[in-house]
Automatic annotation (TrEMBL):
One of its GO terms (cellular component) is euchromatin. It comes from Lachancea dasiensis. InterPro entries: Csn12-like (IPR045114), PCI_dom (IPR000717), WH-like_DNA-bd_sf (IPR036388). One of its GO terms (biological process) is conjugation with cellular fusion. Residues 312-408 form the PCI domain. GO terms for molecular function: double-stranded DNA binding; RNA binding. This is LADA_0F08504g1_1. It holds the Pfam family PCI. It comes from the Eukaryota. Belongs to the CSN12 family.
Length: 419
């Protein structure tokens, strides 16, 4: 009996089954499938659809080109796997993920082709999903979400056989799709669902462990991005980014750089810590090239350079959802500037507001001022009041004397250290 059929009849998966499900794997490597041996109608349909996928790929596709027909067949394959998975144990989760992941890959290629004016003009059929103007990825995620729900809602009382062990793989795939679709609302909904079911699920470490280490790192990365970039919860964002960094391979290259892009600003905002620049430039030169100027601004209180740095990196920061977290670091640059101004004022614990305001203007514009307007003094008072309320400065404002009175001991509690 064919090995593929045996997998479904006996409830196990292996490399042969996974290779059979892939549209670009040769049919000959799996032996002859005798459909007369298949009594399960859904399984028979799955085999037929998969063979049609392989034929479509060989006839009309290539490594860079796929067709709408291949998408429809792949979508049908995952739907059939979903039907077969209902009632099966955890073994089905990985074959199901293989089908879902290749559906994602096909959808992404088709949407990329649709975005190419040359491809669109050559094949009008390709730029239409099941609804006109609907992206293939939008149709894909509906099918993938069914797979996610099958795993999440499995009621198998045997916890070791429960499909809940596969839920994190589909969570990662959905989050990746929503990120490509720029759909933050669906990201939030998915994370909220996972949070509400935490007590019923194995931990990510238990479910993914060493066998699926890449999936574990991906899950941590998406959680770090969600909490830090979407919810401004930098403590949780930092913890997940740190876990992703620790779990990633030492030579992970691009993956590790992506994690560090999150880890550095989250560490600054959550722990008031930044990396040693010498080590940083040696270990992660690509990320250090991006962040080194900002870290220097944290050390010298240069508001003008920090603003220029944000402007020059705006496309990257927006693309990585980091613009808001990075903008919030400006407050720490500002704090460093005020600390420097107070240190050099020569007036002890009572510092003239005009002196501080002049320092702010010079740092922001790179030009000095002879006089400071009342409006500027008022805005400087607001800035200082905010920093005092957050505990960054120990002291108080004397409005009548237009002065900042700082504590004679530890006026600026230590916040930022090297790590």
């Amino acid at each position: 009996m064919n090995v593929v059929i045996q997998c479904f009849q006996r409830g196990f998966h292996n490399d042969i089954l996974e290779e059979f499900l892939r549209y670009n794997a040769p049919v000959s490597t799996h032996g002859v499938v005798d459909l007369n041996d298949v009594y399960n109608e859904k399984l028979k349909q799955l085999i037929q659809v998969t063979l049609c996928m392989k034929e479509e790929y060989l006839s009309n596709c290539s490594g860079t080109k796929v067709t709408a027909r291949l998408f429809e067949l792949s979508n049908e394959q995952v739907k059939l796997l979903n039907r077969l998975a209902d009632g099966e144990s955890v073994w089905i989760a990985e074959p199901l993920y293989v089908g879902a992941k290749q559906l994602f890959d096909i959808s992404r290629k088709l949407d990329q082709m649709a975005a190419d004016p040359m491809a669109a003009s050559n094949d009008k059929q390709i730029i239409k999903g099941d609804l006109e103007q609907e992206k293939y990825m939008e149709k894909c995620v509906r099918t993938v979400h069914t797979s996610f729900k099958l795993c999440l809602n499995d009621r198998n009382p045997n916890t070791h056989e429960n499909k809940k062990w596969g839920v994190y793989m589909f969570t990662n795939l959905e989050l990746r799709i929503y990120k490509l679709l720029h759909n933050r609302d669906m990201v939030r909904n998915l994370v909220k669902v996972m949070e509400s079911r935490t007590s019923e699920l194995p931990t990510p470490e238990q479910a993914l462990g060493t066998k699926h280490r890449a999936q574990l790192v991906t899950y941590y990365y998406y959680m770090a991005e969600y909490y830090g970039c979407h919810e401004a919860n930098f403590d949780r964002g930092f913890e997940f980014a740190r876990k992703a960094w620790l779990a990633s391979r030492a030579d992970a290259g691009t993956q590790e750089n992506m994690i560090c892009l999150l880890l550095v600003p989250f560490a600054i905002l959550a722990r008031k810590r930044y990396p040693d620049l010498h080590i940083f430039k040696t270990e992660y030169p690509a990320v250090a090239q991006i962040y080194a100027p900002a870290i220097e601004c944290l050390r010298n209180g240069d508001l003008w350079t920090f603003a220029e740095w944000i402007e020059s990196h705006e496309p990257l920061l927006l693309r990585q959802n980091l613009y808001v977290p990075i903008a919030m670091i400006r407050e720490l640059v500002l704090l460093k500037l005020i600390k420097i101004v107070c240190k050099h004022s020569g007036s002890g614990s009572i510092v003239s507001l005009r002196y501080i305001a002049a320092g702010l203007v010079k740092s922001e514009t790179k030009t000095g001022v002879k006089t400071v307007s009342e409006e500027r003094l008022d805005s400087t008072e607001c800035v200082l009041a905010n920093l005092i309320s957050k505990g960054y400065i120990k002291g108080y404002l004397s409005h009548s004397n237009r002065a900042l009175v700082v504590s004679k001991t530890n006026a600026f509690p230590r916040l930022t250290t090297t790590d």
